[in-house]
Amino acid sequence: MRTEKWKYVDFYKNDFQQLFDLENDPQEAVNLIDSPKHQHIIKQLSDKTDSYIQQYEAARSDEVKQRSSFINVRHQTSPQYGK
User: Fold this and answer.
1) pLDDT > 70 in the chain, percent
2) Where do the N-sulphoglucosamine sulphohydrolase C-terminal domain residues begin and end (predicted)?
3) Residues 6+ apart with CB under 8 A from 50
């Protein structure tokens, strides 16, 4: 998820996230994901990502909906990828 100021990446299959301040760190050298000061930004961008995924999933064709590998598994306790 990207805004003018922030770039949030959730590698959910690898349980790894990144947050970069594109204004102050355009080379994306400092990952702010563990910064207590930025947790509200992470929450906002994560929620926005979930909303986008829900919107996308609702708009998919019936054929694509049958592909379970497209199901949002970002917050599942034990995600089953590609099944």
Assistant:
1) 73
2) 2-51
3) 72, 74, 75
